[in-house]
Design goal:
The protein is an alpha+beta fold. Helices cover 41% and strands 13% of the residues. The strands form 3 sheets. Strands 7, 8, 9, 10, 12 and 13 form a 6-stranded mixed beta sheet that branches. It has a 5-stranded mixed beta sheet with strand order 2-1-3-11-6. InterPro entries: Bact_solute-bd_prot1, SBP, TAT_signal, TAT_signal_bac_arc.
């Protein structure tokens, strides 16, 4: 994943893009999707092998950044080891992917296998673009005990499983090692007190604005992390109402604004500016996703930096997270041979998720994270406390609500155009209206 892949429009608009595909939904998650019934399993007990006639599988995903070559390598390995299955991988920018997939499935031209973010599974399921996978998960002998619980449960929508978890990616903190050392600091801050001390020492050492607070991407991810740390939540547990304008949310956003008012950050930090400044040494620290690991190595090879889990600013350990899941697309004419081959493919990649960690991701499987090879990777530092990972509720269209609600509030507050409370209260009204509209659009 690259920075451009995870831009404001590309990421928070993903659920909106699915909705923009033009499909209509009925209550209870039904749609006017492609002909045919929901498909599951098929073909008897799973043996780990495919012994049928030669088949070709189309595998679509959005791994267009530094993660793409690692998935391509795994796909090539699979094809070499399974001569009767030919997997063709097509990469599409995530923003475009979530527009093209529903339309392609509707027309009968969709892929066989796909990847999807955890917070988009509900939207794709409500559109009937993807199939339930309960039987397949059972056949593959995948169990919750081998997965991060929140990730395993995140693949379920309306009591059916739609995703096979592959990985997790979360927000993290990055610091310039040379600047930390110069300020007499030997590690990234772990809590609020240490963060404030680090900023103070860096400023005293001549760094005017050591930590830049963005007004756009990834500001909302910082807010998510902080409101969860403060004991609140952006939405109700059932996803029916916006709760980000609670006192916990106001305090979270106030902390972000205080970094600007207190001089830790300059004003009006545009999208990606804080990250580009970090790569060139113009600031000492930034919050961003673990997907930046490979980008930093490739584009700033001389920069000395350290990564760690987001510091605990409030009372609880929590950090915004998301993840990739394997999905099977709904087909007009189900092909049992392809279904069986797809099981073999998904199982193969899942079992190699420790190797997939080289892409910068955190394996969703506990057994993969316990692999010695994963412990050597940079992101292992933020995977020591998986219980701190937090995810958005499985609600169709949640990305659009976040974009038009939370993100707008954060932007106004961090640009000092409105107080945190005023900004959050105004956006909560917008979000609740959108949530109601989505319930009518998607059903439920």
């Amino acid at each position: 994943m690259t920075r451009s892949d995870y831009s404001r429009r590309n990421f928070l608009g993903l659920s909106a893009a699915v909705g923009a595909a033009g499909l209509t939904a009925a209550c209870g998650g039904g749609t006017s999707g492609p002909p045919g019934t929901e498909q599951q399993g098929g073909g008897g007990e799973f043996t780990g092998k495919y012994e049928g006639p030669n088949v070709a599988l189309a595998f679509w995903n959005g791994f267009t950044g530094g993660d793409g070559p690692y998935m391509k390598k795994l796909v090539d390995q699979f094809n070499t080891e399974h001569p009767n299955i030919k997997v063709t991988m097509t990469t599409i920018r995530w923003q475009d992917y979530y527009q093209k997939v529903p339309a392609a499935v509707q027309s009968g031209q969709g892929p066989d296998v796909g990847a999807a973010h955890q917070d988009n599974l509900a939207t794709l399921a409500a559109r009937r673009s993807i199939q339930p996978l309960d039987d397949i998960a059972k056949e593959l002998k995948l169990e919750e005990s081998d997965f991060i619980p929140a990730v395993w449960k995140g693949g379920i929508y309306q009591d059916k499983r739609y995703g096979i978890p592959l990985d997790v990616h979360s927000l993290a903190q990055y610091w310039n090692s040379d600047q930390l050392s110069k300020a007499g600091l030997d590690a990234p801050p772990a809590n609020r007190q240490e963060f404030e001390q680090a900023v103070s020492k860096l400023k005293s050492g001549g760094q005017a604005n050591p930590f830049w607070m963005p007004s756009l991407w990834p500001a909302h991810l910082i807010f998510f992390s902080l409101i969860w740390q403060n004991g609140g939540a952006p939405y109700s547990e059932d996803g029916q109402s916006a709760t980000f304008n609670s006192q916990e949310g106001v305090e979270a956003l106030t902390w972000m604004v205080d970094q600007i008012k207190g001089g830790a950050s300059p004003k009006n930090v545009a999208i990606d500016t804080q990250y580009n400044a970090f790569k060139t040494g113009r600031n000492a620290g930034t919050f961003d996703g673990i997907w930046q690991i490979n980008d930093l190595k490739a584009t700033a090879p001389k920069l000395k930096w350290e990564m760690a889990a987001v510091p605990q600013i409030f009372d609880e350990k929590a950090v915004w997270s998301n993840g990739h899941n394997f999905v099977l697309m709904t087909q007009r004419k189900p092909d049992d041979n392809k279904t069986q081959a797809a099981k073999v493919f998904i199982n193969y990649i899942s079992e190699k998720s420790a190797e997939w960690g080289n892409s910068g991701m955190i394996p969703a499987r506990n057994s993969a994270r316990a692999d010695a090879s994963f412990s050597k990777l940079e992101q292992a530092k933020v995977a020591t406390d998986v219980e701190s990972f937090r995810f958005l509720p499985a609600v169709p269209g949640i990305g659009d609500v976040t974009f038009q609600g939370i993100e707008q509030a954060i932007s106004k507050a961090t640009l000092l155009q409105a107080s945190p409370k005023e900004a959050l209260d105004a956006s909560a009204g917008v979000a609740n209206k959108l949530l109601e509209e989505n319930r009518k659009k998607f059903g439920g």
